[in-house]
Write a structure and sequence with these properties.
Mean pLDDT: 80
Radius of gyration: 18 Å
Shape: globular
Largest sheet: 3 strands, antiparallel
Strand order of the largest sheet: 1-2-3
Low-confidence stretches: 1-6
Helix content: 40-55%
Bound molecules: zinc ion
Distance between the termini: 46 Å
Order of helices and strands: HEEEHHHHH
Length: 166
């Protein structure tokens, strides 16, 4: 058996961080990704956490009940999903820096529910009014600020790096 090492080698060239690229399945939309490297995981996750891009997880009623059909169905879906993620990885690899800057500029969705953020306060916190109502300011500072400031710092670093190289 030859393992599909290709995917992981390509992924390994992408540094940890947040990226935005056009959605390969729908170039009229952006897709947002978080590259995660920890001792327990090494992957590319949709951002925000509850978002999903590309081939959707099949609904239960669409999955064949016969075992042999089900296995073929799942194998087919996995193949499509992997091909989609390959396209995303390729898009990010074209310029990880540009994709990171893009993420910082278009970081306009609520990290909790994924809906667009409209006002400046929401954009600064990265969370919409409904999702943050009922959260006390200390909790907001604790949970939102580290994430948002990190993204802003990365944005700044990327801009500086871009200024140096151009
Ligand atoms: Zn929200």
């Amino acid at each position: 058996m030859t393992a599909p090492a290709r995917d992981w080698e390509a992924l390994d060239t992408i540094p940890e961080g947040y990226y935005a690229v056009l959605d390969p399945a729908d170039p009229g939309r952006m897709s947002y990704w978080r590259r995660v490297i920890t001792t327990r995981q090494n992957g590319l996750r949709p951002w925000p956490t509850k978002a999903w891009y590309g081939p959707a997880v099949p609904r239960r009623k669409d999955v064949p009940t016969e075992r042999i059909d089900r296995e073929a169905f799942i194998a087919d879906w996995s193949k499509k999903r992997r091909a989609y993620l390959d396209q995303v990885v390729t898009a990010i690899r074209q310029s990880p820096q540009a994709a990171a800057v893009c993420f910082a500029r278009f970081r306009i969705r609520c990290w909790s529910c994924g809906r667009p953020l409209r006002d400046e306060t929401s954009k600064a916190l990265g969370v919409g009014p409904e999702c943050r109502s009922g959260m006390d300011p200390a909790a907001l500072a604790r949970y939102c600020t580290p994430e948002v400031t990190r993204v802003h710092a990365e944005h700044l670093a990327a801009l500086r790096a871009a200024a140096v190289t151009t």
